Amino acid sequence: MSDKIEKNGDKGHTAQTGYVLVLSDATAQAEYLASSILHHAEEKQGEPLRIALSGGSTPKRLYELLGSSEYSDRMPWDKIHLFFGDERMVPHTDSDSNFHMVKESLLAHIDIPFRNVHPMPVLDDPAKAAEIYQAELQAIYGSKTLEKGKPLFDIVLLGLGGDGHTASLFPGTPVLQEKDKWVSWSQPSDAPHKRMTLTYPAIASSRFVMFVVSGESKAQIIREVRDEDKPYPSAAIKTEGELHWILDRAAGGE
Ligand SMILES: O=C(O)[C@H](O)[C@@H](O)[C@H](O)[C@H](O)COP(=O)(O)O
């Protein structure tokens, strides 16, 4: 247990109060994140490190670095459990699948025990798939109720969409109102697939939330979320721990 949680108590961080770190470019951003994850893994001193991975394209560079010779042999993969923050309801072999992206960029290159990788199941019935994943999380957590000071995840990596979504918490979808379930699903109006996603309560049960955002195209939405607190889904992200915006200069400016 990081003493940071005890200091923060239940204050925690929001998307607006989180720390901001701007790295020179996407490569430096990936290097910072990889070294940070290695540090957190080492800090756990043999206890499992639970990471919820983000989908989308931005984190691929990080995953490729973690799977590279520079990191793959240094990470205690037998103590790291990889979860997913969200998933598209397509087969894991589909190029639109977040699992497919993580498998190609990371899993295919590391020696991680099969039991340590927790893909979101894909079923025709997304509600059933979400129930299955939630049950898996609850079994690992050891309770069906999230408790303050006992975070479900050590690290939750999140991306940021141009419409202010994060994970698969899209504007105007009912999952934004979910206060009890840990996993739910949505049918975003402007996304081709049904989606499964961690909910706000599950994401909040974390030691660290790291928004990983890069590119000039995201600079405006970051300002609107952080500084103007506009009612985007990503603006409502909270954690009982620390929230960090890990940006490249193109997205984060000076
Ligand atoms: O499944 C997904 O697509 C992600 O979880 C989603 O929330 C993503 O992080 C943002 O859409 C940003 O995507 P890019 O990194 O591709 O800009």
TrEMBL record:
One Gene Ontology MF term: 6-phosphogluconolactonase activity
One Pfam short name: Glucosamine_iso
Metabolic or biological pathway: Carbohydrate degradation; pentose phosphate pathway; D-ribulose 5-phosphate from D-glucose 6-phosphate (oxidative stage): step 2/3
EC category name: hydrolase
Gene Ontology BP annotations: carbohydrate metabolic process; pentose-phosphate shunt
Record domain Glucosamine/galactosamine-6-phosphate isomerase: where: 26-245
EC number in record: 3.1.1.31
Superkingdom, natural source: Bacteria
KW Ion transport (keyword) present: no
Catalytic reaction annotation: 6-phospho-D-glucono-1,5-lactone + H2O = 6-phospho-D-gluconate + H(+)
Keyword tags: Hydrolase
Family membership: Belongs to the glucosamine/galactosamine-6-phosphate isomerase family. 6-phosphogluconolactonase subfamily.
Function in brief: Hydrolysis of 6-phosphogluconolactone to 6-phosphogluconate.
Protein name, per record: 6-phosphogluconolactonase
Upper taxonomic lineage: Bacteria, Pseudomonadati, Pseudomonadota, Alphaproteobacteria, Acetobacterales
Gene that specifies this protein: pgl
